[in-house]
Amino acid sequence: MAGSPTARRRRLAIELKRLREDNKLTCNDVGKALDWSGSKVNRLETGQGRVQPSDIDALCRFYETSDDLRELLKELAKQSKTRGWWHAYGSAVPSWFSVYVGLEAAASSLRTYECEFVPGLLQTEGYARELHLATSQSHPDDVERMIAVRMKRQALLTCPHAPTLWAIMHESTLRHTVGDKDVMCAQYERLLDVAQLKNVTVQVLPFDAGSYPATGAYTILGFPEQEDPDIVYRDGLTDAVYLEQVEDIACYARSFDDLRALALSPRRSSNVIRQLMT
């Protein structure tokens, strides 16, 4: 079972939807049978509503599930209500990004492509501060909390069950000066250091790679259990898109494989980064 409240909430929603679909019923069918609205059933299946133990009991009786499955679903519902460490940072983690942090914490693999800035998990504190000051209209104290969240997220890469991270950055992200020369040199050093980790691969997509199959940054998150399908994350300044359809996942996976083939090898990528430090 994936290990964050967000991932458990997602797993619960997936299981509830699977039960309904296995019984060849619509949300309205289930709602009518249980004297609920179809929209309530939909909310439970999309993780948008808080699932109560009584809801699990009613659904399991209706679907005639085993006692073991009912208890598993109840445990998922209970664990999904716990608070992740990031909730302590309040408004520094907006709701649309809180979902991502929770999924990231439970992921076993992360494949990310960036075409504007260094990926958040690889940024230095100085680099992150420059970005937040340029894009945020928040109070300075909130900006510092945002930076603290970003730095704490990076502990994920060196924890006992660290996910694999494969990061591809367009060369422009490295040549785009954020802050000043000192900030960039520290950022280059950070990239070289983290690229030495066994679970991290860093590649640079060079300017002369020609056309390539991507129209913006994205991250594909994979999870340790088969019951938790991959998800694609794309974000903006004030919102994010989460893609879970099989066809979407396959499209982005192909895109990432093509980008890997076009990008410089990890060794040549490190050499490019070293050259930028001189």
Automatic annotation (TrEMBL):
<dbReference type="GO" id="GO:0003677">
    <property type="term" value="F:DNA binding"/>
</dbReference>
<protein>
    <submittedName>
        <fullName>Transcriptional regulator</fullName>
    </submittedName>
</protein>
<dbReference type="InterPro" id="IPR010982">
    <property type="entry name" value="Lambda_DNA-bd_dom_sf"/>
</dbReference>
<dbReference type="InterPro" id="IPR043917">
    <property type="entry name" value="DUF5753"/>
</dbReference>
<dbReference type="InterPro" id="IPR001387">
    <property type="entry name" value="Cro/C1-type_HTH"/>
</dbReference>
<dbReference type="Pfam" id="PF13560">
    <property type="entry name" value="HTH_31"/>
</dbReference>
<dbReference type="Pfam" id="PF19054">
    <property type="entry name" value="DUF5753"/>
</dbReference>
<feature type="domain" description="HTH cro/C1-type">
    <location>
        <begin position="16"/>
        <end position="69"/>
    </location>
</feature>
